[in-house]
Amino acid sequence: MNATSLSETSSVRAQRSSAPSLPRLLDLLLPVSVALWALGVSQTHITRLGPYGLPPELPALFYAGVVLLVISASAELARPEPTPWRMALHATALVVMLFGTAPLVYAAGRYEWLYKTIGVVQYVNAHGVLNPHIDIYQNWPGFFALTAWFDKVAGLSSALAYGKWAQLAFELAAIPLLYLIYTALGLGPRQRWLAIMLYSASNWVGQDYFSPQALGTVLVLGVTAITLRWLYAGSEWTLLPERAAGRLRRPRDEATPGPAAPVRTDLPRVSMVIVTVLLTFFVLTFTHELSPYILAGQLACLAAFRLIRPRWLPLAMLAIALAFFIPHYHYVASHYAVFSIGNLLHNAFPPSFSAGQVAPAQQFVQRASEALAAFIWVLSALGAWLSRRSKVLVLTLVLLAYSPFGVLAISDYGHEGILRVYLFSLPWAAALASMAIAPVARAIRTSSTADSAADTPADTEEDTQDGQGSSRQRSRPAASALRVLRIPLALGIALTLFFPAFFGDDSYNVMPPQEVATMTAFWRHATPGLVWLPIDNAPVADTARYYLFTLSPIFGQGGFLGAKPATAGVANLLAATARARTTPEQEAYVLVTSNMYAYNASDGVTTPHSFATLISSLGHSRSWRLIVRTRHVAIYQLRR
Predict the structure, then answer these.
(1) What single string gives the DSSP state of each residue in 432-485?
(2) At residue 288, what are phi and psi to the nearest 5 degrees?
(3) Which residues of 50-78 are buried (b: 16+ CB within 10 A; e: fewer)?
(4) CA dihedral 160, 163, 165, 171 (to 10 degrees)
């Protein structure tokens, strides 16, 4: 044995002797990171949030826990074979840190629109049926009926008891579905777990609150997971017959142990899968308005390229969606623009383009959210290019990631449209981004393996094995070091942008519990009528009587005054208009909350002088009397 062989043998023995202690040391990082996060949350006491929301109020221990989690996850992903259960714990811990912080820190749920959905649930609980003439929510009853049933079974009087935990629950539910999807697509273990963590770290839009959209997102992922696992031509578990899968089936990764799975062609199992997909899609159809059409469009793109079978499946989905929509068309068309062609540019711009004179802090929050979306989309485009030789996988992900952009040209979602596109694009963009961050490393090859390695798909592991799995080809050290650094860097950038994008608006998104309690009592006992809101940002309509009140904003787009400044006589003008709009049996109110002040200070709906003039005018007007006065709420009632 020469000196070189002896040195290599000693090195291998040293690595083997140190191997047991290294995993034990790394395994300590995850529990320590969770402990630091929990300690940081326990030390966070919110009395009043500044213009940058929650991030400045979180202690250093909190951020130390997040950083340590990224380091721990990156170390696990840097292993030749990341352990599934360890990565599952890391992905779960990240979701808990990001989406469990708010319900732990805040006594009441975030977002004023949360309380509107609770009101619909309360209506179902009180009446046992829905009334499609009231609003758009009651025309798509799936989420509300399910939640009302849950409240009955659980013996809860209101969804307020658990509504603030919805984001955490929906994000946790997405993890196993994403794992099934990425496995069916053929992503390597490293890429699949990295994509899951990127998805969580980039989902800043906030559409996962207690809402039909959140349940719809989970159902979309469920339908897609079933379809890609058993009806996708690129999956080794496909039930498609050989003639349907054909050349599209991906070559099996030689590094994967065990025999290749056979292609099953039994018609009963195919039929069972199709029936399950269509039944789940049917539930999605009456749960959310937009999700069924985007999903059907995504799967139609796959069917057009023969990536899924049967190719008529998206047409069947569209038929189900239209069968439900047609009876509701009259109501929707009378309240919304159903097919508004030509709004591409208007829909493509984010909400910041429609804002007024926003504060510098709000500009920072908006830029952070836009930068995060751009970061993921740019990485996804880079991943598609770098992995372009894996044609089936890349084509599938590109179609799924970018087909939702088509909704911008045919809908009238306004500046919210691009947010919907990002939400539906994110699972697939995250997968493409993971292929850019953790691509297949080009191993040092001998001439005998060069030809076979050229056919290796881009989604295989970076360290390939021979047919017996007994030896590994080693990547260049520089490339390996770069790969190790890319993962924490990408996660770090995403999380750095996530915190201001997701928590930066909490100065007005967080509802004080005293404000919620006061407003709930008002909606339960007040005489129905017209309610003037200086700015539409308050926990309104969270009871079964929500439909009895007509809410009318005063300032802002669509408001009574719009962009006009308030004058000293504005209270009398509101009173005269209220008398004209209401009957003698109805009442009229002006409702002012602390969140309206915070929202106006951040987004500049009107000038501070106009807001102050309105309050002063109400206080001096004989047409209005103050009936409720708390720290967070003031309610004026019209004198008859």
Answers:
(1) HHHHHHSPPP-----HHHHHHHHT--TTS-SS-B-TTS--BPPPPHHHHHHHHH
(2) -140, 150
(3) ebbbbbebbeebbbbbbbbbbbbbbbbbb
(4) 180
- With a CB cutoff of 8 Å and minimum separation 6, the contacts of 57 are 44, 46, 49, 50
C-alpha pair distances (Å), 122 with each of 213, 246, 513: 18, 53, 19
With CA atoms as reference, report the closest residue to 223 among 290, 313, 147.
313
What is the pairing mode between strands 587-593 and 529-533?
parallel
Type of residue at 54: L
Of how many residues is the chain composed? 640
**What angle separates helix 113-127 from helix 513-525, to the nearest 10 degrees?**
40
C-alpha distance across the termini of the chain, in Å: 106
Q: Which helix (H) or strand (E) holds 588?
A: strand 587-593
Tell me the helix, strand and coil percentages in the chain, rounded to 5: 65, 5, 30
pLDDT, tens digit, for every residue of 578-623? Answer: 999 999 899 999 999 999 999 999 988 999 999 999 999 999 999 9
Distance CA 228, CA 223 (A): 9
pLDDT in tens, 14-71: 444 444 445 567 789 999 999 999 999 999 988 889 999 999 999 999 999 999 999 9
Pair type for strands 529-533 and 550-553: parallel
Give the gyration radius of the chain's Cα atoms. Answer: 28
